């Protein structure tokens, strides 16, 4: 898989110095930010031009890809910090004392460095796209050039720096392509609130009960929209899985290679010191030990691969679970997720959890992978050194010896177990007129008493099986924040799960399709101008003509019922109703969702 | 707590030889069984005399104490087998080869030895009580005499045999007293089915909705009747906790004492060989090592005590959970226990699980205690040797050094965490007209992005905390079968929990209060004789007079509704309704529940 070379690799200084490049990029970024600030202020002054706000990058209305790429980029930088000799590019040959401080500073520096990329994508303006393309091209170009200059580094494993920078290069390349495409196509006009997804959801929800299966079918078939924050979390977790696997391999395998290369005839004496005699021939001892270290390496790589696969599968299952949870919460099924009645409303812990969720999930995936690797490694070691190797070489068959010597116990347990099942089937169950009932109760009691002690012994196997299955299940699911590892009555004590549920509550309160549909309707009204307050009120009550005809009256009554129905099924919308009186407050709800101007509007006009 | 003496204890042969005693007891038991069989057959022939059946000892109608004591006795014997030199009393100085077989035979022998005690209590007859008292007195007397003769044995710890036989003596003493009391008072006439518990339950269930809180109050206040099987399981678990704690102490502490007694000046050289220099003075090294082994012992005893207390608390919580589950299942709340719709009916796996449950639970408690002790021991060791001793002696402060050196990281994390909470409280939540909403979304997004990396670092702490809390929770709850240790969607994979739920289903189907009340009513009818089939039908439909008055008609309609109500809320009763046509089948339902003859009956007569 990997070929490690034991020659000393000299430190390599790339043509493009990292320090110089970072200073240049910081200055360029500063200029870019200033330009974008001016543009953004002009946007705010002339409302008609408004398209986006520079810091609105985590809103549902934004392109998911950009935010995902930037977060992935930043996380890649963090994971390279773990064993980097110089955490910050501004100082070379950092001393061990100041490394700690450097790392803390780096944690704050890198998000700042890549921030302009996010802003360029968020401010929906051609100038922004040009600047974004410029920035991402220079980042990508320099990184590529450096890696081409110095593919090998004197760090633990010569290709580690190259392999670790692959996700960064991928993210930067995606950003380049995306900025160019956006520049060519221009800012997209199909806004989040205009899309038919929300209105279709509301229309189907408001329909009569008879169409309920159709509703669910629609919601199932329509492409489900993940909240941006969850999509970012999933992508960063994916990047984290790559980096953790890479680190796990790179930190251990080269050491094993060095150990294997250093095995010589002295090993026989060393083992003799511990009373282990593998063979009388010293060369054979060397061969055996070399073979064992090779097996060790194979076991380790298998464990890392297994843990990698387990985490990828768990990530996919998490996504499915997120979708189920979101859909359930949209429908008001709060109990199934929280196991208690809680309101869906932004709360203080909720927002703190929402801010941290991506970070927490990533860290939990990393820790989970490390623990999984260790556990799987131990399991593989046991399997190989206690089962497979002894069977192949026919010696050290401890496990089989122990199992074999206990055969009377196994046979007894098997026989008793079979006896219980057979007796139950033929003697203790009576089928009569389609029902089942107990039969021969006295014999059942007698057998229960006589087999009580053997059932205690059988219980030991059940207990060991319980310990094994519980540990494995919990270790495998350690990386998932959407599952509690505790019993359902104590779910809230699992910190990861409680963060997840809190964050989800904030997410739901901000991206509920019914609310979004209503916001879209409200914006349509506002764009029309004039009599806005009245119009909104009318829209809410379903009145679009003021004619006093009977049809209007019927429609108004029906609309009011529909409004009540909506509010009853979506109580989180209730809080917003008081704002509908004036345009001013109506605007404040939409704080952060972009305004729409230049578009045709067919629903608002009569 | 314990004082161990290192003098050699000579093997002690009690005056009453175990082999001779067992042979005598077996013969006496055989005679007793024959007498009881004759008595039981006579009972069956003259139905009017019937009081009990010899093997009906696990029925709800039986005294709980007897069965609990005998099961406890049998289990005590098993737990003494674990380190006994002679598993069976018939052979002395068993060779290691045949010990395995002897143990398996002993597992079948001891339940047989104590079986007559159970039968004497179950067959509700004065002769049975006399024989039972005789048997239990001779068991108790001989055991007491043996222990008085030889309080010390050459086994691992001199008083182990004495301490381990305490639960046996307790159980036997209880049986003696109980048999004497029963003989004096005579067989109790207040049968299970006559008690007002069941009829009161049904009457309250059938009342109108308005009295619902009263119903629940009644069910809460009335002494809850545990099924006999669960009571036996709980008692045996209690005995198991005692035996496991005793074994855990006895297997380790004497070894530590021997090690401590053997510490001399050579230990300094031995430690030097490993490169450990505790002190330059050899005597001081001896003192330090002695002190450390003493600390080790203290840690171990603390761990055992803690695990003992944890298991006692868990046993009590289990009992509360059993009661909640049973009450819920009586009311038909199947979903909350099984997480899926399942019928409450005896099934093949259900009966097998019901037979094994006591044994499985006991074994799981034992394994749980052992694992808990090991884990708590490691925790205490870490606490004492890494925290307390270094603080007292001011050296080897590894843990504090590591924590202290990382102070910039701690301070940063604390500050960032505080920043997030403060910002959320004062900037990101807007309270308006009683609702809470997000405010300053752009700043929230900016902060989320900038603090992303530090949140990853914070996530590492969350992940470690999650691992710790999950492991501790699951290890503490390992001994409980009424809790699944897996996530609620995978509960069925936990073997212990799935056995418990299966067994509970069988238990419920046999001890449902509504069914019991109906069986009581049915027996009352049968005792009256004549027109039984018609009477039962009448009773079911609430008709007691055949007068065609309007009042009867109304009552009949109301009774039918009540019947329907009962059946709808207790669907498990539905299966029994087809049997109500003939006396023959009605009797077959009651197979095993004792018949009632000589008693006044006020309800059945008009």
UniProtKB/TrEMBL annotation, chains A, B:
Pfam families hit by this protein: RBP_receptor (PF14752)
Name of the protein: Receptor for retinol uptake STRA6
GO molecular function: retinal binding; retinol binding; retinol transmembrane transporter activity; signaling receptor activity
Disordered: annotated span: 586-606
Compartments where found: Cell membrane
Source organism (scientific name): Labrus bergylta
GO CC annotation, single: plasma membrane
Transmembrane regions: 20-39, 66-84, 104-120, 127-145, 157-184, 234-256, 291-315, 364-393, 405-423, 444-465
Keywords: Cell membrane, Membrane, Receptor, Retinol-binding, Transmembrane, Transmembrane helix, Transport, Vitamin A
Gene Ontology BP, a term: vitamin A import into cell
Topology in the lipid bilayer: Multi-pass membrane protein
Record-linked PANTHER family: COILED-COIL DOMAIN-CONTAINING PROTEIN 180 (PTHR21444), RECEPTOR FOR RETINOL UPTAKE STRA6 (PTHR21444:SF16)
């Amino acid at each position: 898989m990997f070929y490690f070379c034991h020659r000393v690799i000299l430190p390599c200084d790339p043509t493009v110095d990292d320090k110089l490049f970072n200073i240049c990029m910081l200055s360029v970024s500063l200029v870019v930010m200033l330009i974008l600030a001016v543009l953004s202020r002009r946007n705010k002054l002339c409302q008609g031009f408004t398209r986006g706000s520079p810091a609105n990058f985590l809103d549902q209305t934004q392109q998911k890809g950009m935010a995902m790429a930037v977060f992935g980029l930043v996380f890649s930088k963090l994971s390279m910090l773990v064993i980097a000799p110089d955490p910050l590019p501004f100082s070379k040959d950092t001393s061990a004392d100041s490394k700690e401080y450097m790392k803390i500073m780096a944690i704050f520096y890198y998000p700042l460095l890549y921030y302009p990329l996010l802003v360029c994508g968020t401010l929906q303006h051609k100038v922004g796209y040009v600047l974004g393309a410029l920035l991402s091209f220079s980042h990508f170009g320099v990184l590529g050039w450096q890696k081409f200059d110095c593919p090998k580094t004197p760090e633990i494993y010569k290709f580690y720096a190259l392999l670790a920078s692959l996700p960064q290069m991928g993210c930067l390349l995606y950003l380049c392509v995306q900025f160019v495409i956006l520049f060519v196509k221009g800012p997209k006009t199909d806004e989040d609130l205009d899309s038919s997804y929300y209105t279709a959801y509301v229309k189907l929800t408001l329909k009569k009960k008879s169409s309920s299966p159709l509703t669910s079918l629609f919601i199932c078939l329509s492409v489900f929209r993940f909240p941006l924050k969850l999509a970012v979390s999933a992508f960063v977790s994916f990047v984290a899985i790559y980096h953790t696997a890479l680190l796990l391999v790179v930190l251990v395998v080269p050491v094993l290679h060095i150990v294997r290369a250093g095995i010589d005839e002295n090993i026989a004496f060393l083992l003799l010191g511990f009373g282990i005699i593998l063979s009388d021939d010293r060369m054979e001892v060397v061969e055996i030990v070399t073979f064992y270290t090779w097996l060790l390496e194979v076991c380790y790589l298998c464990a890392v691969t297994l843990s990698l696969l387990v985490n990828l599968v768990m990530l996919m299952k998490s996504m499915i679970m997120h979708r189920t949870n979101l859909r359930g919460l949209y429908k008001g099924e709060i109990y199934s997720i929280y196991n208690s009645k809680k309101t869906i409303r932004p709360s203080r812990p909720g927002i703190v959890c929402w801010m941290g969720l991506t970070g927490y999930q990533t860290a939990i995936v990393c820790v989970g992978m490390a623990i999984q690797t260790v556990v799987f490694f131990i399991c593989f070691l046991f399997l190989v050194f206690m089962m497979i190797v002894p069977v192949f070489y026919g010696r050290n068959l401890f496990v089989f010896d122990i199992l074999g010597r206990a055969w009377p116990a196994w046979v007894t347990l098997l026989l008793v177990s079979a006896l219980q099942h057979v007796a139950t089937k033929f003697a203790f169950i009576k089928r009569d007129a389609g029902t089942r009932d107990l039969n021969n109760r006295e014999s059942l009691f007698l057998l229960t008493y006589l087999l009580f002690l053997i059932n205690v012994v059988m219980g030991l196997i059940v207990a060991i099986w319980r310990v094994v299955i519980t540990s494995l299940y919990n270790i495998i699911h350690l990386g998932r924040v959407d599952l509690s590892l505790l019993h359902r009555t104590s779910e809230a004590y699992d910190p990861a799960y409680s963060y997840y549920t809190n964050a989800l509550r904030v997410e739901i309160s901000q991206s509920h399709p019914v609310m979004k549909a209503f916001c879209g309707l409200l914006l349509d009204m506002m764009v029309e101008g004039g009599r806005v307050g009245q119009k909104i009120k009318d829209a809410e009550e379903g009145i679009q003509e003021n004619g006093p005809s009977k049809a209007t009256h019927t429609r108004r009554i029906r609309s009011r019922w529909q409004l009540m129905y909506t509010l009853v099924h979506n109580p989180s919308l209730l809080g917003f109703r008081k704002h509908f009186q004036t345009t001013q407050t109506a605007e404040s709800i939409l704080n952060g969702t972009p305004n729409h101007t230049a578009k045709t509007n067919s629903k608002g006009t009569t």
